[in-house]
Amino acid sequence: MDDQQNIQALTSLLTTVTAVTILLPETATRDALASALGLYLSLQQLQKEVTIYYPKQAIVGWSHLVGVNKLKQKLGSKNFVISLDYIEGSIEKVSYNIAGNKFNLVIEPRGETATFDEKNVSYNYSGFMTDMIFAVGAMSKDALGKYFSENPAIFNEKSVVVIDNKAENTRFGKINFVTQSAAVAEIVAGVIKSAQFPIDADIASNLYDGLIFGSRNFVSPQVSAETFEMAAYLLHQGARKNSPPKQQEEAPVREYLMKNTPDSSLPPPPDWLKPKIYKSSSLL
User: Fold this and answer.
1) Domain boundary pick from 218, 236, 254
2) With CB atoms counted within 10 Å of each terminal CB, which end of the chain scores lower, N or C?
3) Residue 110: strand, helix, or coil
4) Which domain holds residue 71?
5) Which pTM was predicted?
């Protein structure tokens, strides 16, 4: 399926849905997160009920991204799940009844001896309600961690749209926008432009930030003419270029320098202060 077919499939799908979920993997880069937030804001303007999930806390260096406060971590509160320790063959029957305003779940043990202890009962929530899913920056379903492992059925029941720029992507969606572009933001910007989705200065600013980071300020080997065209498009839409220092992203660089820079507290080598005589290889 080429990009134009993907665009047509996506626009057609969006006319039939209301609730949209955007999922990011734990390994999401600033590029992927900025791209997902740009998509989130655009879909909101299409009057969709959009929820965006990222399994970790957003770092301080991402605080300038518009909508970062809308990120949710825990996915799903549709189903109330009661869990208890279980031994194979220990349950005869499970039933329920309603007495007044109480719902009673009845677990009948097999045999005469009760094998369940209230101390070993716990509860949780799982499942989520959505009409379609966007997976941004995820190479596979497994890359989405618990978002997938705890809700595998919904990935088969609902339409999944994958947006990523990694060659290793398994293209696990019904619709896949997967190209080896310089940045995920380049792909999202292209989708928004081609599909004529809403875009404003906030959306453009998020995508431009992702484009700058993903392309390493336009020096990545994947940078192409299309990368600069998308940058120009976003600037025309009002993208703001002023971003705060990339504190978290620069941490590995600082760590490298600290490990590889001589410790000034150590004494200099023995011959450091001795006079040095330099000889030329030729006489003038």
Assistant:
1) 236
2) C
3) coil
4) 3-77+127-236
5) 0.72
